[in-house]
Write a structure and sequence with these properties.
CATH class of chain A: Alpha Beta
Strand content of chain A: 15-25%
Structural class of chain A: alpha/beta
Helix content of chain A: 25-40%
CATH architecture of chain A: 3-Layer(aba) Sandwich
Shape of chain A: globular
Radius of gyration of chain A: 18 Å
Oligomer: homodimer
Number of helices of chain A: 9
Chain lengths: 287, 287
């Protein structure tokens, strides 16, 4: 197979209801290491007001759907076999994983590195980024999961870094039949990951990284949800990440040398200082 | 006069001896508000090893000189009358201010918003970014100030946000004849700024902002020198900024509405989280 890796920039912010997700995608795209073999495509995302309305109990559902469809269109046009995705919020992994599952099928394993299981649905929560694993299993948001043509089986998902799920989430994880362990250490247990790969004979791996899996202490990793300088009330499903940045970086780096990484998402990177610099520029009469 | 504003991206890092300054310039460029009237030019800066040698008691002096000359060349080619500069470290303001002083002469005032006076010279310190005001006064680094064709007079500089200078710096400020007041409040005293403008009949203003003027508490402004996750010993001239971000933003924004801002530098923005994300990408076998 000829190898073709694309870089997909998906500035979807509506599924997480915070425009700063858009800025995260812009920054990741700008700083990424150069590689002339890798085409970079920025997905056109919905223009919508910064105050989003709920539709079918989902924040900005129609904008989210538009973003998902635009992402799908780009991937199908490009026909890659490896995808790097710069989010945006966690929803950005939906179409890349769906597409790669169409190529690799039961040989594909997905490591979901996240403090949260993202397996919700509109009956229990309203922001789509918490439903992306649900959608990939066809157990999430009926309106959005329709775009998933190649749903995952529950054994294809491995949660790493997961914190105590809510009661609703626990039920949904169990109903879906996903095995999981709440992360009490601050390091990923690589042996468990490797056992899961062996048991399932996976040959291709997708890693989804939600940076909020990390402890948000400013000496560990700053650019996460919990350092929002304007943060109001924390939703009750927002478990706080505990992982050490160095251990996650080491895990992904080592893993990518030893296994065939066919996809990587960097999601929910929230560059607060960049946002502040942009605020200054927007309000200064020289730009 | 036909108005022409350019955006100058100056990824000089050598004058501050930290490659992350380069990343700061990249991020600022990427996130800046769109304006099709403003051409953006990235100055080619020296490639050099990340371990820099001292030359004439100045870190990477020849690389710094190259960066200064390339900056000068771009400005002279473009012939703007307003310049926005994305640093890089503080040295990036040298050539824009020199050039605009050539246009506006004694009608130009420079507000230097910084915890530090940047008035050093190679006899008392070794990193060029601490010498830029010295160079602009022709009292800094003999080898680098030669590039300043239109030196400032001491009344043209107003320090805002300045913390207690070192003894050497105090002497140099006094010898240069600059009036200053150490900033004990966390807000800029706008009245003092306005008095200085009136006394000197300035009609055009350049604002240089070194983000380290701000208190580096992560709830105030994170992306500064003092949050370097690998920070070792702090040099003894590194006074800690005390200003509130909101007050500085408000000052610059209000000021730019009421006065003719002909130049703005954003300098020493150090996006540690972006640096960490780049580290991850550099070490992951998919890029």
């Amino acid at each position: 197979m000829i190898e073709k890796t694309i870089r997909l920039v998906v500035p979807d912010w509506q599924a997480g209801d915070n425009p700063v997700y858009k800025l995260g995608a812009k920054v990741l795209k700008a700083i990424a290491p150069e590689n002339k073999e890798q085409k970079t495509i920025t997905v056109k995302t919905a223009d919508s007001n910064q105050t989003l309305e709920k539709e079918n109990n989902v924040t900005a559902q129609s904008a989210v759907l538009k973003n998902i469809r635009n992402t799908k269109k780009v991937i199908i046009t490009e026909q890659p076999n490896k995808i790097i995705t710069f989010g945006g919020n966690c929803l950005v992994s939906q179409q890349p994983i769906d597409y790669l599952n169409g190529i690799y099928g039961e040989k594909l394993g997905v490591i979901w590195i996240d403090a949260h299981p993202d397996i919700s649905n509109p009956e229990v929560f309203y922001n789509e980024h918490a439903m992306v694993v649900g959608n990939l299993l066809h157990r999430g948001d009926p309106a959005i999961q329709k775009e998933v043509d190649n749903p995952l089986k529950s054994n294809q998902i491995f949660y790493a870094g997961l914190q105590e799920p809510t009661n609703n989430e626990k039920k949904l994880i169990e109903q879906a039949g996903i095995k999981y362990k709440v992360q009490d250490e601050n390091q990923i247990d690589s042996e468990r990951v490797i056992d899961w790969i062996k048991e399932n004979n996976f040959e291709h791996i997708y890693i989804h990284l939600d940076v909020d899996v990390m402890n948000s202490d400013s000496k560990n990793f700053y650019a996460t949800y919990f350092n929002n300088p304007d943060l109001g009330e924390i939703p009750d499903n927002a478990a706080v990440g505990k992982m050490s940045r160095k251990s996650i970086w080491q895990f992904i780096s080592n893993f990518s040398q030893e296994y065939n990484l066919v996809g990587l998402t960097l999601a929910e990177y929230l560059p607060w200082s960049a946002k502040e610099m942009l605020d200054l520029m927007n309000n200064t009469n020289i730009f």
